[in-house]
Write the C-alpha cells for this entry.
Amino acid sequence: MDSHNLFLTRATYRFLRAEYAAALVAAIVLAIVHLGDIRWPLFIGLFVYIDLIGYLPGAIAYRRSPDHSIARRYYALYNAMHSLLTAAAVAGLWCLLVRPEWALLALPIHLCGDRGLFGNFLKPFGVTFEPTTHPAYQEFVTRYDNHPPRPAPSLAEHDQLAAA
C-alpha cells in the first residue's frame, strides 16, 4: 500500500497483522512482569469500554436491521473507540489527571489484539459493519491475483499520469 494504492494484498495484510501481534506480545509481557502492580478493576474497565461504546451499539443495530444497513454514526463510534489516537489521549489524560499505571496496558492489549489476532482494523463506511467480503473487492482481488505486476512507468509516463 502507498499513497496512490490504498489497499492491502494478502501478504501485506498478514505482515501488518504480525506487527500488531508482536506489539500485543510486548504489552502482554509487560502486564505479566507487572502483574502485582495492575489495578484489575481499572484494567478490565479500560479493556471493555472500547467495545461497550465502539462495537456493541453498531453490532446490535446491524443485527436488528433487516438489510444490515446501519447509520454512519456506528462506524464513527467504532473507529473513534478503536483508534490508537483515542487510546493515547485516554492514557495521556489518565496519566496527567490520575497517575501513570500499568492498568493502562489494557488499551494496547485490546487494540493490538483486535488487529493482530482478529484482523479487525478501522471500518470504512462502504462495507458492512460485520465482516463480509464486498463484491467489488472480491472482483479486484481476482483480477489482481491473475495479473503479473506492471513495470513502473517511465518518468515521462509518470508525468502524463500525474497530469491526467
Remarks:
- The helical segments are 10-33, 40-54, 56-64, 72-81, 84-97, 106-116, 135-145, 155-163.
- The chain is about 65% helix and 0% strand.
- The two ends are 21 Å apart (CA to CA).
- The chain has a mean pLDDT of 93.
